[in-house]
């Protein structure tokens, strides 16, 4: 077809109009995004200069960490000095001195991980129960689907720290408030992910179970659950990793775990202990993340 | 006896099934033929209420099926087993569990939830699998099977329902000719030995002629033919399948899935 063919010219004309319209739309979206970013940056005082100014000071924390305040005129003495690293508990510049409260930290870290485990199991169970009636393709009752989806949205939009703070009032200071806060958030977050998996489930199996006279429960149990369970477990493990990190923060509002101790030592400016706790948290989180990632990959590999 | 009275189903402004009036006697083997989109699948699904009718009624032994609800509806579905073109098995479960699913209607909610099947149910499943010649794959996962094996698993599940009727929606459309014959033979055997009524949608004319005593032709939602295979003349076929481009009658070879070596009754073509 030659370029001066009337049909081709008409096509070009229409195609060109379509393309211009799409281009205008893209430009408008991009301009809006840039504008929003700038407004946000101004409001939050986010500016390149400030980052640039602050950059040299990043090292100062570590400098303080590795030195104690000098007496007037004297040189700073490092907290951790090579010659003393393997010294005893009473030796100020040794690892043992740094971690002299390791038993307390250990107990609190264990409590933190336990909080995450209980909260994840709680959230998983609740999300599992709620996700099926909240799936539009599986639940014919539109009202129930709508109501449950909004409920899950509310559960996951309230920040966990706010929830924990609210729960410290009725349930007192301690892990229970933290567990409830994380558990509730987990319900909302997992519920949403689960129902998306449900929406993608192959409905032929469901129709098959329906055709043998299976109840709604039977259709879910045999038609849907076998399809989605590996995905559910993978998401739950991912959530567990996130929950371990979240539960370290819970202590800041008195909701249990290592965070309470962290808040205290930060408050007293005890740099060695702040660092000791941060290092321990990092260690635990990394170990759990790596382990759970392995397990998740095995799930995916096994069921894919 | 099953009776369809002015049974209709509307999708948007299209009538998928338009006022079907049919009567089926117990033990019949009926083939339903027609072009894609003629309403064959909808008709079958209206009978076991996987699709709700827009109008009309299904009456089984004097009971108005279209009015059934809850447990009674499920009882009706359990009595009218269904075979699907895409098998509709639970892919991630093994064959035995898939077959045992045929008993779900008869099980308590607790047993359903915890997958508790009795030894008697398992024995029944093994018996049914043996009858269809697929006992050796009982522990395989359903999605690891060939199409022909999957369809036999689906038939085994249907038999577990101890149904009075089997509705087969294009049971051999996804199968190669050899497996198609195995599946159709199994349905015929069930029809003849147990006297179970079989209604089956078929898109292959010669299969319908070979296996069914009665053929129903559908076109654009209407029942345009109901009679013996011998009565399917070229004129009738044209009313079912429409005129082909050159005015020729439908060539049965084009819709055939049978192997040349498989003997079938000589029919006038």
What can you see in these coordinates?
The complex is a heterodimer of chains A (304) and B (269). With 304 residues, chain A is mainly alpha-helical. Chain A folds into 3 domains: 6-49; 64-98, no CATH class; 102-303, MetI-like fold (Orthogonal Bundle). Chain A contains 12 helices and no strands. In chain A, helix 6 packs across helix 8 (175-200), helix 7 crosses helix 8 (175-200) and helix 9 (203-211) crosses helix 10 (216-250). Chain A is extended and about 90 Å long. Chain B has helices spanning 40-47, 70-79, 95-100, 109-113, 119-131, 147-160, 177-194, 205-211, 234-241, and strands at 2-11, 14-24, 29-34, 55-60, 63-64, 80-83, 165-168, 197-201, 214-219, 222-227. In chain B, strand 1 and strand 2 (14-24) form a beta hairpin. Chain B contains 9 helices and 10 strands. Chain B has 269 residues and is α/β, with parallel strands linked by helices. Chain B has one domain (2-255): P-loop containing nucleotide triphosphate hydrolases (Rossmann fold), CATH 3.40.50.300.
Give a summary of the structure in a few sentences:
Chain A has about 300 residues and is mainly α.
By CATH, the superfamily of chain B comes out as P-loop containing nucleotide triphosphate hydrolases
Radius of gyration of chain A: 28 Å
The order of strands across the largest sheet of chain B is 6-7-8-3-9-10
Mean pLDDT of chain B: 83
Instruction: Specify the structural class of chain A.
Output: mainly alpha
Shape of chain A: extended
Number of helices of chain A: 12
CATH topology of the largest domain in chain A: MetI-like fold
Q: From the alpha-carbon coordinates, what is the Rg of chain B to the nearest angstrom?
A: 19 Å
CATH architecture of the largest domain in chain A: Orthogonal Bundle
Q: Which regions of chain B contain 5 or more consecutive residues with pLDDT less than 50?
A: 260-269
DSSP helix fraction of chain A: over 70%
Structural class of chain B: alpha/beta
Name the assembly state.
heterodimer
* CATH C-level category of chain B: Alpha Beta
């Amino acid at each position: 077809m030659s370029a001066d063919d009337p049909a081709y010219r008409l096509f070009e004309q229409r195609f060109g109009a379509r393309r211009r319209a799409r281009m205008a739309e893209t430009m408008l979206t991009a301009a809006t995004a840039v504008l929003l970013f700038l407004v946000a940056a101004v409001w939050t005082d986010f500016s390149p200069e400030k980052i640039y100014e602050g950059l040299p000071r990043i090292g100062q924390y570590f400098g303080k960490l590795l030195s104690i305040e000098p007496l007037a005129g004297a040189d700073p003495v490092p907290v951790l000095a090579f010659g003393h690293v393997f010294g005893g508990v009473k030796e100020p510049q040794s690892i043992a001195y740094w971690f002299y409260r390791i038993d307390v930290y250990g107990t609190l870290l264990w409590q933190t991980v336990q909080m995450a485990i209980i909260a994840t199991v709680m959230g998983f169970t609740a999300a599992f129960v709620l996700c099926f009636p909240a799936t539009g393709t599986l639940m014919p009752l539109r009202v129930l689907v709508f109501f449950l989806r909004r409920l899950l949205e509310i559960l996951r939009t309230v920040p966990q720290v706010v929830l924990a703070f609210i729960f410290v009032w009725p349930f007192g200071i301690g892990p229970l408030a933290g567990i409830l806060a994380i558990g509730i958030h987990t319900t909302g977050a997992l519920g949403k992910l689960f129902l998306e998996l449900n929406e993608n489930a192959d409905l032929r199996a469901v129709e098959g179970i329906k055709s043998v006279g299976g109840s709604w429960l039977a259709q879910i149990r045999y038609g849907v659950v076998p399809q989605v369970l590996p995905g559910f477990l993978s998401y739950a493990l991912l959530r567990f990793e996130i929950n371990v990190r979240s539960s370290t923060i819970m202590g800041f509002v008195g909701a249990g775990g290592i965070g309470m101790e962290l808040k205290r030592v930060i408050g007293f400016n005890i740099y060695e202990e702040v660092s000791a706790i941060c290092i321990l948290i990092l260690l635990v989180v990394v170990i759990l993340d790596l382990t759970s990632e392995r397990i998740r990959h095995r799930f995916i590999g096994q069921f894919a | 006896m099953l009776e369809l009275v002015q049974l209709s189903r509307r999708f948007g402004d299209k009538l998928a099934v338009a006022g079907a009036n049919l009567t089926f006697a117990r033990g019949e083997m009926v083939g339903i033929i027609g072009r894609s989109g003629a309403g064959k699948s909808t008709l079958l699904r209206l009978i076991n209420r996987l699709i709700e009718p827009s109008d009309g009624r299904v009456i089984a032994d004097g009971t108005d099926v279209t009015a059934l609800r809850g447990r009674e509806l499920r009882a009706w579905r359990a009595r009218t087993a269904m075979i699907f073109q895409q098998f509709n098995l639970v892919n991630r479960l093994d064959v035995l569990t898939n077959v045992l699913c045929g008993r779900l209607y008869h099980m308590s909610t607790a047993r359903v939830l915890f997958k508790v099947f009795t030894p008697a149910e398992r024995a029944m499943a093994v018996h049914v699998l043996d009858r269809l010649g697929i006992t050796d794959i009982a522990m395989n996962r359903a999605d690891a099977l060939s199409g022909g094996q999957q369809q036999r698993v689906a038939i085994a599940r249907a038999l577990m329902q101890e149904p009075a009727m089997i509705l087969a929606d294009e049971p051999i459309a996804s199968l190669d000719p050899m497996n198609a014959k195995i599946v159709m033979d199994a349905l015929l055997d069930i029809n003849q030995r147990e006297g179970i009524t079989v209604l089956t949608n078929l898109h292959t004319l010669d299969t319908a002629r070979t296996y069914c005593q009665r053929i129903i032709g559908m076109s654009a939602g209407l029942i345009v033919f109901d009679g013996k295979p011998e009565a399917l003349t070229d004129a009738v076929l044209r009313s079912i399948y429409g005129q082909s481009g050159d005015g020729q009658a439908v060539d049965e070879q084009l819709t055939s899935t049978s192997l040349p070596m498989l003997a079938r009754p000589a029919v006038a073509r």
